[in-house]
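Thread: Newbie trying to understand structure tokens

Hi all, I'm a second-year student working on a class project, and my supervisor (Dr. K.) asked me to get a predicted structure for one chain before our next meeting. I've only ever worked with sequences, so writing a 3D structure as a token string is new to me. If someone could post the tokens and maybe explain what I'm looking at, I'd be very grateful. Here's the chain:
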Amino acid sequence: MRFPPIEKTAVIGVIGAGTMGAGIAQLAAMHGHPVRLMDTNQGAAAAAITRIEKALTTLVEKGRLKEEDRIASIARLQPVDKLDAMADASLVIEAIVENLQIKQQLMRSLEQHVQPAAILATNTSSISVTAIANGMQHPGRLAGMHFFNPVPLMKLVEVIAGAETQADVLDTLAALSERWGKTAVRAASTPGFIVNRIARPFYAETLQLLQEQAATPAQIDRAMRSIGFRMGPCEVMDLIGHDVNYAVTTSVFEANYGDRRYQPSLVQKALLDGGRLGRKVGKGFYEGTPSAVPEPAALPLVAPARVAVAGNDAISTHLADFFIQRGLRIDYQLEASWSGVVIGDVQLRFSDGRCAAQLSHELGIDSLGVIDWPLLSESGNAIAVSCAPRMSEASRQQVGAALNQAGLEAVILRDVPGLVVARTVAMLINEACDAVWQGVCTEPAADLAMKLGVNYPAGPFEWLQLLGPQRVIVTLDHLFQAYRGERYRVSPLLRQMAWVA
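---
Reply by user tm_fold:
Sure, no problem. This is what the structure looks like when written as tokens:
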């Protein structure tokens, strides 16, 4: 059976009146569709419409919506309490609880109430679309249509193909998403799809650092915000809710048969056990909201004595550009056989996944430290640093003072492999390579998904283009040697990229 395009005034059904369901209903209504909003909890759909009215009123007050459009959008919203109210819908999107059995039962029942040409979609964030379609009479009509919160604002929609989803269904949902002002990216139905899969290291590496007592949440968040993330990992987990984030991680971990790359964290489990679910309860990593985390004072821009950028590779150039843009003149040692920063007699080598203690031992240099990858944004200045055990206290103070004078906030961490940015970005790149290798998505789709779905400052393949595959591979291999675990195994695609580079 063929499924026709969805007309501009076609009826849209939404099942589930929580945050996501209400957002989808608002989006559809604002784009001219009559919307049937259903929830099994009595009064929930009507309450959601009241919330939508308030949101639309706010848009009018801010000048982002005309009053007549607000009135028309509200008039298109209808609360319903039975599935047979979806009989005239061209598309029904479910946004109910993340439970496979409940979603399966809904889809099997829904088929009995909709027209034969109606398309069904699931807003699941991590459950297999193929599994949800199991038991349906016409599984070809079901696809994933994964929106991101807040739905009216976030630009991405993942359009996900189950094993039996028809091609015209995917085309129709992608076209509809674009008409609604979204960017649609195609994904195969694998655990986590694109965003929730590739994003796991963003959280996992932070949780690993916390478990190793390497840094505080505020230090990690400062370092990650400085490369362009709007919020640091601990802030994001507090915002999402540790119950939700832990559940997604557990779902991806179990769906991948216990692959250690996705292993849930004891640190996050402890937060759950203690009821520290994040912002919604007023406590998580932080007490209160992340906005209460103090920002450091602006650092003076004074060219420090005897400081040089060593090497002429991509990230050495990136750091040199940082200094140039701030009007500082720093010496350069382009002929150096390594890359990093020279401060007096101290070498700060860019992280390659080895800790400072290991490098100091292997090279026989006491005055040695490791500095994180300087992928600094225009407004960022925090960068992680660790020092070898035998570095003198005077040299340690010299390092911090010199970096601060040059406009860099030195975040001194316990000496752990990979620091913050290097291990996190390397793992994000590696996960994206594996997703492409396994046919989940294309490289452009991965970059688009991470930038539009979760506001990453760059896509994983954009970072890879800057860093080069060899640097990422060396870092991952050293992390693998340090931890002796499959978590840091290198993607076959990434290896191939290095061979043909």
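A couple of things are worth pointing out once you decode it. The longest strand covers residues 89-94. The domain at 307-412 is CATH 3.30.750.190 (Transcription Regulator spoIIAA). Feel free to ask follow-ups in this thread.
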